[in-house]
Write a structure and sequence with these properties.
alpha+beta, 8-stranded mixed beta sheet, 5-stranded antiparallel beta sheet, 13 helices, globular
Length: 463
């Protein structure tokens, strides 16, 4: 039997209340007791509640976690005094055991829907936030900036082509000031930029998926999963209008819950990386970046998005360009975070197995190339901005614009090189390439009304 200290139980006030007053505690969220237990010199803090659970171990070896899990059940029995109740807690409260060296506190999701979350209730789970703040500027978010990366002209032309098609079908963005229209427009900006990553990011759109980690709480419009594993970025779109103060904080609380859910999902797969959120209003965008190691949130200043009032084509194009550059500037860091997470895991496994893993060098090369691409992309944006905001003569201005275009193309090429080095990249078969390679067989089949496999045995062997 493991050496187990007698649990020191401590009563806690109900934490479902947001403070002040004498509101009745919610039975589902009431925290009853907690205990600190030592099992074979490892420390576990167990709370019989529906909120925070933490277990810490100094043993980095995860092979015996099931054993430690069983030992923790014994400790939890001393709180509940009922083995059946203990099993219910473990099954439905998602209790788990993790080594302390990950430095991650697992938090069970609040038993509230996203739309019902309030900032005072959510903020207390995170670092340095002010639960009873009345304004987002006083809420304790650490400041950060969105550094744009200049999208190459070829990609921007494709964005404009897609936007033209969307406007001709649905009208201009200021004709429909709602989330659906904004989603249609934003998709046409995101899609050509995501194509640069050649299958690295999979868009898990709300309309295409059942709720997973966020079951019973709602979902965001989009979340992007890198390498079919890591959720590195997500987006929420709200028709805010003139929303300020507590309503804005309520919106932010929903984003925070989603960030924590995404971080928990990553942690379940063995990764711990910053999660980048995009909070889109109708005419502005903010980045909300969550660092799960420190449970800290960073919030950027708003940057312009699509206009909500009628404007001329010149102003609209400038807004689209600015938004595209800022989106690109967030996607590349999300990609780099994913690469570094896989690199760290590969290095850990190599050390654990006392061997050299071939994938480690590939992840390191991919990360190095991506970071150089990020540097060049930001330089291109800075070069262009400085060129158009400084009083140069026409020749000097033309040269700076030309240089910005060249640098942006170099950055994208480095991204392509980085993706090619990634051991886990997904390569989808191209419909267009397949058709062009076998065009004759398809045309013959159409003319003769036959199955193309009967026309060309080559195609059958290719499948």
């Amino acid at each position: 039997m493991p050496n187990m200290e007698s649990p020191v139980k401590r009563e806690r006030d109900d934490e479902g209340s947001t403070g002040g007053g004498h509101a009745e505690p919610s039975p589902k969220r009431q925290c009853t007791k907690a205990t600190e237990v030592t099992i074979e010199d490892d420390i576990y803090i167990l709370e019989y509640s529906s909120e925070l659970r933490e277990s810490r171990s100094d043993d980095p070896n995860e092979d015996d976690l099931q054993t430690k899990f069983d030992q923790c059940k014994v400790a939890l029995n001393q709180i509940t005094k009922n083995e059946e109740e203990t099993q219910t807690v473990l099954e439905y409260a998602q209790f788990r055991v993790l080594p302390a060296k990950r430095r991650i506190q697992l938090q069970d999701k609040l038993d509230v829907a996203f739309s019902q979350a309030n900032f005072a209730e959510v903020a207390r789970f995170f670092t340095d936030l002010v639960p009873h703040a009345s304004d987002i500027n006083r809420a304790g978010f650490k400041p950060c900036s969105i550094h744009p990366m200049r999208v190459p002209d070829s990609i921007f032309h494709e964005i404009l082509r897609r936007m033209d098609s969307k406007f001709s079908q649905f009208g201009m963005p200021w004709d429909h000031q709602n989330e659906t229209m904004q989603n249609y427009c934003l998709f046409e900006i995101f899609s050509p930029i995501l194509d640069v990553f050649d299958g690295v990011f999979m868009d898990k759109a709300e309309v295409l998926m059942d709720s997973e980690v966020t079951k019973k709480r709602g979902r965001v419009e989009h979340r992007w999963v890198a390498f079919d594993s890591i959720c590195a970025k997500y987006q929420e779109l709200k028709c805010l209008g003139a929303v300020r103060g507590e309503q804005m904080l309520k919106m932010m609380a929903q984003m925070m819950l989603e960030a924590d859910a995404r971080a928990t999902q990553n942690e379940n797969l063995g990764f711990c990386i910053p999660v980048i959120g995009m909070f889109m209003a109708l005419d502005s965008m903010q980045a909300l970046i969550y660092h799960p190691h420190t449970r800290t949130f960073f919030l950027s200043d708003p940057v312009p998005a699509l206009p909500t009032i009628k404007t001329d084509m010149r102003a609209l194009i400038i807004r689209i360009r600015q938004l595209a550059d800022h989106i690109f500037g967030l996607l590349v860091p999300a990609y780099i975070n994913s690469l570094d997470a896989f690199l760290a895991r590969s290095e850990r496994l190599a050390k654990k197995e006392n061997t050299t893993r071939e994938s480690t060098a590939h992840w390191r090369q991919a990360s190095t190339l991506a970071k150089e691409a990020l540097k060049l992309g930001r330089e291109a944006a800075s070069t262009f901005h400085h060129g158009v905001t400084t009083h140069y003569n026409e020749g000097e201005l033309t040269e700076r614009i030309r240089r910005a275009r060249e640098i942006s193309e170099e950055a994208v090429q480095l991204l392509h090189d980085s993706i090619a080095k990634s051991p886990k990249r997904l390569v989808n078969e191209s419909l267009r390439k397949y058709y062009m390679d076998h065009e004759k067989s398809f045309l013959e089949a159409e003319v003769l009304g036959l199955d193309p496999y009967r026309i060309s045995p080559v195609m059958d062997s290719d499948m």
